[in-house]
Amino acid sequence: MTALPSVEVTVYPFECDAFGHLNEAAFLQLFERARWDVLARGPGMDLFKRNNAWPAVRRATVDYRAGVFPGDVLRIDSAVTQRGTTSVTLRHVATRVSDRLVVAEAEIVFVLIDRVGRPTPMTEEMARFFGPRTAGATARESLRVTAGGAELSVEVRGEGVPVLFVHGFPLDRTMWRHQLAALTRWKRIALDLRGAGASSVPADGYSVARYADDVVAVLDAVGVKQAVVCGLSMGGYVVFELLRRHAERVRAVVLADTRSEPDSEEGRRARDELIATAEREGPDAVAERMLPRMLAPVTFVEQPELVGEVRAMMRRWTVPGLVGALRALRNRPDSTDTLRQIRVPTLVLVGEEDHITPPAVAKPMAAAISGARLVTIPAAGHLAPLEQPLAVGGALSEFLDSLS
Ligand code: MLT
User: What is the pTM of this model?
Assistant: First the structure.
């Protein structure tokens, strides 16, 4: 990947629509303006003309993340994520300078064409500007990692300080999709734990210790010695185990919607009942039991498509995966002493309306960790990263920035 110089642009009133915010067409123009600015500062705006090769846009996708208004100053970071013989893919990330919020991301594929519209190879001068050829490589890499008899599915995106995401139960790595897309200044790594998502489903051998060893196998496979580790709920239990077994691999910790205490007697009985439900009625029944407690009431009303997404994620589990994970959860150790031993920067995140691991659990947990910060996310239940991605993204980028 070749990073191009960053450009700052101010949003003018005439670029905004009747509601006062920057619309899609204006956004594309703004990215184009940034590209010409980069050329003007580098090889010159006549780079294409003098090389007889014009970049024709073949595909443009823009993810809009937040409203942008007149007077906002945006920093546009651009990078060449793929360079073939006749094509170039550029990635633009627009960050509002005042609050460092990523407001939009774009991926634009160009094919170089000659005067009569035929694809034409890149000249040497252009190749110097766009960087080394990377045809076949993608900005988003999917890997299979073998660990302790399982094949783990892993997604790696971007460059920078590594941040590894561990999902909750019964979910998979797609629960981090907003953070994987938005935290573009860091290397994002997300795995499907054994038994979940696109990972394989061993018949047995599930425990939080095994999950933690799997995380280390993933870090080894992607060549990362130390990562910021971010776990939600069950993912948090895995982070505690990681801190006990492999503390040297942890640069900093994010504990999202999780708890340090083990299951109570009543909690264990509920796990046994859910195991019986899984075996008798299958994943759909488990999903229907769990779904009502996972999200804030306001999410059910205002984000029905997200409710459907979470239900579908739960239904993708298999019976052996569910049973294995429920046994691992049921038998997990008490991590309360581990809190006092954490020596790395820690952020505790909790949805204000999380009923599974409520703020009343998060507060004392944060208080027991030396120097930990606590951030409560309004209008979010147990799945704050999906329910309120902007607020969670803001809290995460502020924390990650504080590490450097
Ligand atoms: C999770 O989200 O991972 C689960 O709620 C954890 C649990 O049931 O203890």
Answer: 0.71
